[in-house]
Specification:
It is built from three helices and five strands, in the order βαββββαα. By secondary structure, it is α+β, with helices and mostly antiparallel strands. The chain has one domain (9-106).
Length: 112
């Protein structure tokens, strides 16, 4: 029996010093939530197969020198909600301190 797993990995790249990129990361997370909640906009960011073959990273959004990238993991088209991407980045709009610490936003200060 074979199980195929397809997912989207979220990557945040920054090239600023800490005071600036916290603001940019907070902005992109809020922007992604806003974008996905607007009528007429797609709720899912979709990474198409086979266009995403060979570990290509797709740009989701940017702010300044902060890039949010998506990478397809698996061998089928996959999608993720813009809200889930934002939650991965900052822990959630109404996140607890523990959720914020587990998010990408805190990886520089929490061993990530």
């Amino acid at each position: 029996m074979m199980f195929l797993f397809t997912a989207v990995r979220i990557i945040v790249l920054v090239s600023h010093t800490i005071p600036f990129w916290f603001e940019e990361i907070a902005y992109v997370a809020g922007y992604l939530r806003f974008y996905g909640s607007q009528p007429g906009n797609p709720q899912f960011y979709t990474v198409p197969w086979p266009n995403a073959d060979n570990c290509i990273k797709w740009q989701v959004t940017t702010k300044g020198s902060t890039w949010v990238m998506a990478k397809l993991v698996g061998n089928d088209t996959a999608g993720v909600t813009f809200d889930d991407i934002a939650n991965t980045i900052d822990g959630g709009a109404k996140s607890t301190l523990e959720q914020k610490a587990a998010a990408l936003y805190s990886c520089d200060t929490n061993g990530g």
